[in-house]
Amino acid sequence: MSLKPKLISFKLCPYVQRSVITLLEKKVPHDIEYIDLENKPDWFLKISPLGKVPVLVVNDRVLFESAVINEYLDETNPPSLHPSDAFDKAENRAYIEFVSSLLVHFYLLSTSKDEQTFEAKKKDLANGLSRLEQLIKLPFFNGEKLSLLDTSTAPLLTRLLLIEKNTGIQLIPDELKKVRSYAEKVTSLDSVKKSVVSDFESLFVGYLKKKSEYLATRLT
Ligand SMILES: N[C@@H](CCC(=O)N[C@@H](CS)C(=O)NCC(=O)O)C(=O)O
């Protein structure tokens, strides 16, 4: 008998959220186990080659890396969320990686000690978002159909909008009109709303206050 897949998670992790959105969009019954990344359990260190979440446990076998987990979920739960054209599909996979690099800028922004670091990372993010602006077709990245690229971009957009809401600092510049509309669309999806714990916003704001001396002074 096959068991429900279990996602090993951390409540604030954007990479975990990518896989939760994919599980919800695909309507895959699953379990979630949250761990404390500052105090990783031994059983987790044994099964996680990189010591990172997400990890997906499927019938006692283990997958890691959110993009790989999502590809597996996509392949085993048709129809595929990827575009069918080979070039479009490859390009979407490339942009999933690109958005991962934006999550690194985002991490540095959300842990910035001073205004100078914050502003530098805000600029790196805006440069990255302006590349997306050129490609987004709306309402989703590829047009009418939701894709794995959207499930991978949503966690970054969720966090950008929450920082804007709680600090009044604009992170998506005015001229990036498609990115703004795209961000509003994906963050309004049921799967995206349900992909985080119910007190996510207060946990996230608490995390920012703790990790960023600069943002702590700007959070309301
Ligand atoms: N490339 C990985 C990144 C995962 C990742 O960085 N996870 C962070 C939490 S958001 C983590 O587990 N960090 C623990 C550590 O590095 O010790 C993926 O896409 O799954």
Fold and architecture overview:
The mean pLDDT is 97. The chain folds into 2 domains: 6-76, Glutaredoxin, CATH 3.40.30.10; 86-218, Glutathione S-transferase Yfyf (Class Pi), Chain A, domain 2 (Up-down Bundle), CATH 1.20.1050.10. A 4-stranded mixed β-sheet has the order 2-1-3-4, with helices on one face. The termini are far apart. It contains 10 helices and 4 strands; from the N terminus they run βαβαββαααααααα. With 220 residues, the protein is α+β, with helices and mostly antiparallel strands. 58% of the residues lie in helices and 7% in strands. The longest helix is centred in the middle third of the chain and has 25 residues, at 86-110. It binds glutathione. Glutathione binds next to α3.
Strand-helix topology:
Blueprint: E1 6-9, H1 14-25, E2 31-34, H2 42-47, E3 55-58, E4 61-64, H3 66-76, H4 86-110, H5 115-135, H6 148-167, H7 177-187, H8 190-193, H9 200-211, H10 213-218
Parallel strand pairs: 1-2
Antiparallel strand pairs: 1-3, 3-4
This protein binds glutathione.
